[in-house]
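Weekly structure sync, notes
Attendees: PL (lead), two postdocs, one rotation student
Agenda item 3: pending single-chain targets
PL asked that the sequence for the first pending target be pasted directly into the notes so everyone works from the same version. It is reproduced below exactly as submitted, 521 residues in total.
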Amino acid sequence: MKIKTSKKKASVSKGTRQGKRFSIDEDSFFRHESKRRRRAKDEDAEDDIIESEEETDEEGPGSDADGGEGRPEEDEFAAETADEKRLRVAKAYVEKIRGIVSREREDEEEESEGDDEEREGRRDSLVARILQQEQLEDSGRVRRLIASRVQKPETVDEFRVLVKHRQSVTAVALAEDDLKGFSASKDGMIVQWDVDSGKSEKYTWPTEEILKSHGSKDPQGRAVKQSKNVLALAVSSDGRYLASGGLDRHVHLWDTRTREHLQAFPGHRGPVSCLTFREGTSELFSGSFDRTIKIWSAEDRAYINSLFGHQSEVLSIDCLRKERVLTVGRDRSMQLWKVPEESRLVFRAPASSLECCCFVNNDDFLSGSDDGSIGLWGMRRKKPVYIVKNAHALSSIHQQPEQSDVEKIPNGCVENGNHNHDEYNCSTVYSWVSSITVCRNSDLSASGAANGSVRLWAIGSETKDIRPLFNLPLVGFVNSLAFSKSGQFLVAGVGQEPRLGRWGRLPAARNGVAVQSLKFS
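Predicted structure, written out during the meeting:
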């Protein structure tokens, strides 16, 4: 009670003009204040706090003032603007890079005889080069040309099964440091494993009561009970959060350090088929069979927005550092969402249903179709710039089509191989391109199907084409692919059945996670 009285007295003692301004600030119409007025208000609030503390110091340890001693530290950055926050984060990041450079060159600086200013100048120039290189790579302006240096693996260096699952693996994801990975299967099992040793640890689903306390809701529509079938995984850039989604129509958030369930995001009216984090942030995007894309904040554990535009189920999603989301659906369209502008670009597939997609850079992206073709797209054209037909065709003579047999087709695209139906079968589920991925900031790509091999491709940045490199034998439905950031290995999620159904089966396949090491010349 004393605190409230002191604040009233302080506001009245400022004069009638101050009292009017206080009443205006309380009005919701005047909540958007200028920066100068907000700073003046913060200074007045600090004066009020100081005056109230002088009166409450005599109340003793049992007063209410003791409970609010930590509040000024918590609200230290509450009043800063968006520009001030960006500046503070940038300064902190620069200091972090300076510390890393200083530790790396500590011995060299001790041996050098130059003065402190000269050493600091060299350090700052090195920090500037590092920041510039990172900015160019993140923006997609610099690409590593590593596809031409990949050596064809020997027969002994084939895919090795790292983690086994009881049922078909539906999704795999790698952490930013390439040290640990995550996989999920149709039986609801989520496994975290070490890339080098293969040691795995399982995630335990909480009880129904705990799930409801974390935000889970009862199933709606045809569902009569919660299904643990997981269809998608995504891990944040900092490695703190793991997101999973499946047939229970919820997006589940996990803590990768403790493997505990944190939150369940309801809202989708259909199975959650795909997930992705925006690079460098905790912003999460989810695609569903209800034809919507929803945006979540993993840090705040809150819903942000929904994106509408697809006319059928959303099957695949991808996102880079920019606030742009790439999705494909069964409506034979690929859509690029510009989130800040609240706009989208729609790309129509020629004559097939798209199954998967991924970014090459901010302006180019790849797609895989159910007719066995892979398309390269650009921002400036609504049609594919380049198409590779029969990318995973089944051949009766067990030979893959060669890229040298290339011919132009009327729509201006390019297709490869001999398309004689007696030799190649592209209509079955075993030739569908079920997964595609790109090694970030490079020209190396990989695609998977159920024809018995994973294919590596080189993407031409200037020529805008797709060149085949070689095949990596792997039996089973390749439902998910992930490159390491360095490009030194490729991870594949393999199963006996497709990811989204049971319209095909390969009994000879092994359900699990397979790893292929890549060597460079």
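Discussion points:
- The CA atoms of residues 159 and 516 lie 5 Å apart.
- The radius of gyration is 28 Å.
Action: rotation student to compare against the earlier draft before next sync.
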